[in-house]
Amino acid sequence: MSHQLSRRRLLQLATASVAGLGLAACGDNGSGSAGGDGDSGKITVWSWTTPAEGLRSVVPAFERDNPGIEVDVQDVGNPAIWDKITVGLASGGKGLADVLHIGVDYLPGYLDKFPDGIADLSRLGADKYKDAFAKGLWPTVIGENKAAHALPWEVNPLGLFYRHDHFEKAGVDPDGIGDWNDMIAAGSKILNATGVRLLGLDKTGATQDMDFFQNLMQLQDVFYFDQDGKITLASPAAIKALTIIKRLNDAGLIADTAGQGTEKRLLGQGKLATYAEAAWAVEYLASTFPEQKGKWRSMQPPAAVPGGKRNAIVNSTYLAVSGSSTRRKAAWRFIEYALTKPARINRMFASGGVFPALKAAYDDPKFSSPHPFYGGQKVLKPFVESLSADARATNFTGDYARALKFASDAQSQVLLKGADPADALKKAAEQLAQQTGRQQAV
Amino acid sequence: MSLAPSEHAPATTTPAGRGTTKQTRRTRPCRRRLLTRTSVPYLLIMPAVLGFAIFKAYPIVASLWISLTTGNGAGRHFTGLGNYQRLLSDPLFWTALKNTALILVVQVPLMLGLALLVALGLNSTKVWLRPLWRLGVFVPSLTGLVAAGVMFSVILNRDAGLLNWVLSLFGIDRVNWLGSPFWARVGVVLVITWHYTGYNAVIYLAGLQGIPQELYEAAKVDGAGPVRRFVSITLPQLRPILLLTVVLSTIGTLQLFDEPYVLTGGGPDNATLTVTMYLYNNGFKYFDFGYASALAYALALIVAVLGFLQVRLMGERK
């Protein structure tokens, strides 16, 4: 046999190589159908910083109880993880980890745009946990095929953290604050007495951090979309929310937190009197600013309207299995192991600050214990109680990212150009409808 | 086409005269060889051609196809020019295009003018420690784009930024660099200019050093002053280099992404949203790959038209 290739053969080989590569690329259609139900071997998990630490704390026990399965938890970083998952899903699941940690702001979009990209967990037995998690989370994990595609890990009921020392110096009684009208009045008192602004907000919208605006809407049981997916961005509740922000700004109570790390720096310097955040911040504040021990307290968030409700679930995160995983059963076993047993989920809470979605976890004494960072206040208890109250699920939909963009633009117009909230939101809702083809709710 | 010497050898035939061709092929003493004078150049360019086919041609064609479709995952369906029609009526696309054009019109002449001045300075024999100055001018272009964006987001911070601190030394009020639509654009222009001026200056410097000194000496003898020599000798001699930098800078600015993405996220109120950033948002945030691909083709068309016009207007006239 000759060791020299003929030109024809060379041409054939080259053509076959190119065609093969082309077909490999063309063949990936996002179905994730290349996956398999392997129940052993090494599985990879993608998460970020502190949650990744929490997951790692479960791995030794899992590997001991599940011989044959090895777990590699990778800290991909946030927000880098969203680009990595998106690119992986768009290329048919290539390169994705077996287990994916996904936020409520992305999960509906992934289920909507990549129907087979996330594995069906109902097939593996997820449905038996339907009632095990905090109210309002299960609808988010359901795809168009009515199957569950993830298990809830984290739920974030809203709270309002405040600097007890600043309130005291200004003579403000937190118990006397029922709604944001009261809080605006209190904020002016605090500003006058201490020179400290009430809260921080990214006025430029560079980070599109719209949590505060969303929280004010969620306190009124409204979001960008209603439960039918219709646009509610220009609803009276949304206008009320943006009007509160405008009033806070006009009163000089908002510190601009645009720029990386600005809010953290201002909190560290004691220049913000409150921090409107969800339950995960309980441990975040305590571990990030240990020198401020005893100065913080927590209260229920003021209502957006007088007499309105003072609780809301603002966001949540989930663990899912990629549709392209070849070890879907092993990946599911890890998720089930980590998220459905109170002791393990609470161990992760302790090491990663992720507030558990599993209802049985709240029986642990730590949820009703005094917290030294908060001056001995039983800081976790109100958060747990608010979950059992009427906290409704939020329909993020697959178009959340677009809605966020337009809402952020509207807020920037109001804060930087003095635009009227109703006009800005009307324009935003119209643009959202035009771009998504969704109808506006009447 | 030249054949290998062996191919001229006489063919053998079977007594029955059947299967001659097959027999001939099998028994031909020497077949066509891979390494001939004709095939070697093809072999040499094959890696590049394969690389182009796989990593350039295929994505280009695939992107064109995707731009004509809508949907998700496996469920893409053909919509013809629907995405392009949508693009024409999308106010955010026009905002992004306007922003990009504004940065192009302001920043490119500013940067290239500055780069030319720097290059003239670095080319002067009167400058002491010239290699050090050249290094200093070129160093910013070695900085990663994202790192540059992060660094300037700190420098331009309203409350704690270095620039506002320097301005305060002169009694000038703090500027809301990233919070005002006007100053945010200025901030983006600042970053790009800082990053690429040295790069262009080095190109100009190479061009300046290629101009024959005799031309300057002759002009001096004829009594031409420095300005006259610059206008009549330097600029015409630099014409191809100028064209190169103008075209490259135009393409680069039209594809501007990293710096405004890190610095302002396209804000405030879309004042620094660029076409590529909008493209990225549609693809990777909204998962609207069809529309993102249409944006990519629209941008490619704009780049091609502008490049063509620039070459026609500034190119060598015969």
Could you give a quick summary of the protein structure above?
With 442 residues, chain A is of the alpha/beta class.
Task: Jot down its keywords.
heterodimer, A: alpha/beta, five-stranded mixed β-sheet, three-stranded antiparallel β-sheet, 10 strands, disordered N terminus, B: 318 residues, mainly alpha, 2 strands, globular
Poorly predicted runs of chain B are: 1-25
Strand sequence of the main sheet of chain A, in spatial order?
A: 2-1-3-10-4
Helix/strand structural class of chain B: mainly alpha
Biggest sheet overview of chain A: 5 strands, mixed
* Cα Rg of chain A: 24 Å
* H/I helix tally of chain A: 17
H/E element order of chain B: HHEEHHHHHHHHHHH
Q: What is the approximate shape of chain A?
A: globular
Q: Can you give the helix content of chain B as a percent range?
A: 55-70%
How does the overall form of chain B come out from the CA principal axes? globular
Biggest sheet record of chain B: 2 strands, antiparallel
Element string of chain A (H = helix, E = strand): HEHHEHEHHEEHHEHHEHEHEEHHHHH
Mean pLDDT of chain B: 84
Task: Kindly report the oligomeric state of this protein.
Answer: heterodimer
Number of helices of chain B: 13
Order of strands in the sheet with the most strands of chain B? 1-2
The number of distinct β-strands of chain B equals 2
